[in-house]
Design brief:
The complex is a heterodimer of chains A (266) and B (241). Chain A has 266 residues and is mostly helical. Chain A has a single domain, classed as MetI-like (MetI-like fold, Orthogonal Bundle), CATH 1.10.3720.10. Helix content of chain A is 79%, strand content 0%. The relative contact order of chain A is 0.14. Chain B starts with a strand and ends with a helix. Classes of the chains: A mainly alpha (266), B alpha/beta (241).
């Protein structure tokens, strides 16, 4: 009996809080017909926003993967001064509100900040362009890969790495044949989460993007802009694209869970 | 290959784990490092393997100083306590790993590697299991694969860290003789770390008894039994056959 009540409550909760709102976005986007929906998606500014969002994710992902793998391996395998501090700093973006993060970047890398100011005379501008968007996206997505890899690296692979070393493996062999196969599933999870966050981030990006129409509008920013312009259908149409991208990452994750290594059987 | 460790010192965070250990072995000899946990035997083995570095002291192989040679360049085959097989590689790929990562000039071709692997699989009696993965094998089979992987690189010395401790008593006894036979067949010198005196007795030509970071006696099993140098040795040998 208690089980049935709990199950019903769970479903009621996710329906009201998650399923209905997400479904409503799609419903509203198509409420004026498919033709209007398609026209809204093909709007020049919306297409540019999609392009910018995907481009940002494509730049952020490889940087995050390289940093995340290196940092997680370092933290898992070595004991060094500042190790705990490094771990805490890497996870800080989880705790810091994205809008605060955006303001921090503006302070340091903006035209009047120490770094931005120093670069300004050379004609280099870091904020209010793609660079700024990529920088804050790196900030907010920094912990994902590390967080996925660290638990795996902590419990597996150290002896295998030692064995590989005694057998004559160099650094590349070690990474390619031993470390990478051991962390591959965790790495894919990290990448999926990073991609979802990089594409969906609003707060931090809104501070440093400068909202230049058709130039620095990412998809989340474009949605807000359309909505504030009283173009609700356009906003919801764009929202379906973002939602679809997010759902795609979820589906990918589900597939990976299904076909990935079974827990406890590793 | 004659191997010698001279006056090895090692501390961790101010605690001396090895206090001037010296050990010289003949070509093809099987030496057991016997001691209780905390006696420093595993640290000594790791230093010989090149996985850790001594604070002081020297390692020589055929008279050549190898103290600072990286682990991968020493060509010492190592069998780990939990075998440390590559879990995502087949048995055959595990055994072939040391050949596959050789520099291009020295690396045998694909066919040659496959021949070497099947030769080794025959030798350990697992000829049909090359395509299996480590988790599909029994403990004893894994141990033999770990041996074959270490032998595949034609090691100058075979190092074994408690190679039987993860096995049940029955398998342990039957594998002892096959390990010894394999080592003699290949003709490679071997150093085995163990806390089990019966194991040391069965396998080793000479046993180095370690206690609190020092080798307190290094001699043949018979000599150890007849004239134990210290009370610690006598205690360790209590009940030895």
């Amino acid at each position: 009996m208690a089980r049935i009540v709990l199950i019903s409550l769970s479903f009621l909760f996710v329906t009201l809080v998650i399923a209905v709102p997400v479904a409503a976005v799609f419903h509203r986007a198509f409420s004026e017909g498919v033709a209007t929906y398609v026209a809204n998606i093909l709007d020049e500014e919306t297409l540019l926003a999609i392009r910018l969002t995907v481009l940002t994710a494509l730049i952020v992902l490889p940087l995050n993967v390289i940093f995340g793998v290196a940092a997680a391996w370092l933290i898992a395998r070595y004991r060094f001064f500042g190790r705990r501090a490094l771990l805490i700093i890497i996870e800080a973006p989880f705790a810091i509100s994205p809008i605060v993060a955006g303001l921090c970047f503006l302070l340091v890398y903006g035209a009047y900040g120490p770094v931005g100011g120093a670069l300004a005379p050379y004609g280099m501008q870091l904020m209010f362009n793609l660079t700024g968007i990529v920088l804050v996206s790196l900030f907010v997505t920094c912990p994902f890969v590390v967080r996925e890899l660290l638990p795996v690296l902590m419990v597996t692979g150290e002896d295998e790495e030692k064995a590989a070393i005694t057998l004559g493996a160099n650094g590349w062999h070690l990474f390619r044949f031993v470390i990478l196969p051991n962390i591959s599933w965790a790495l894919v999870y990290g990448v999926v989460l990073t991609a979802a966050r990089a594409m969906g981030e609003f707060g931090a990006v809104s501070v440093v993007a400068g909202s230049i129409r058709g130039e620095t509008m990412t998809l989340p920013l474009q949605i807000e802009l359309l909505y504030n312009d009283y173009n609700a259908t356009g906003a919801f149409a764009a929202a379906t694209v973002l939602t679809a991208l997010a759902l795609l990452t979820l589906v990918l994750r589900g597939i990976l869970n299904r076909f990935g290594p079974k827990k406890g059987h590793v | 290959m004659t191997f010698e460790a001279r006056n090895i010192y090692k501390s961790f965070n101010g605690t001396e784990v090895l206090k001037g250990v010296s050990l010289a072995m003949e070509a093809g000899e099987f030496v057991a490092l016997l001691g209780a946990s905390g006696s420093g035997k595993t640290t000594l083995l790791n230093i010989i393997a090149g996985l850790q570095h001594a604070d002081q002291g020297q390692l020589t192989l055929d008279g050549q100083d190898i103290t600072r040679l990286p682990a991968g360049k020493r060509r010492f085959g190592m069998v780990f306590q939990n075998y440390a097989l590559f879990r995502h590689m087949s048995v055959a790929d595990n055994i072939a790993f040391g050949l596959r990562v050789l520099p291009r000039r020295e690396r045998p071709g694909r066919v040659e590697r496959r021949e070497k692997v099947s030769e080794l699989l025959d030798m350990i009696g697992l000829a049909d299991l090359g395509d299996r993965f480590p988790q599909q094998l029994s403990g004893g089979q894994r141990q033999r694969v770990a041996m074959a992987r270490a032998l595949a690189i034609n090691p100058q010395l075979l190092l074994m860290d408690e190679p039987f401790s993860a096995l049940d008593a029955q398998v342990r006894r039957s594998l002892r003789s096959s390990v010894r036979a394999l080592q003699q067949k290949v003709g490679v010198g071997a150093i085995m770390v163990t806390h089990d005196q019966a194991e040391a007795w069965d396998l080793a030509d000479r046993v180095a008894v370690m206690d609190q970071g020092q080798i307190v006696q290094f001699d043949t099993p018979d000599a150890l039994r007849n004239t134990p140098a210290t009370g610690a040795v006598r205690d360790l040998l209590q009940g030895a056959a």
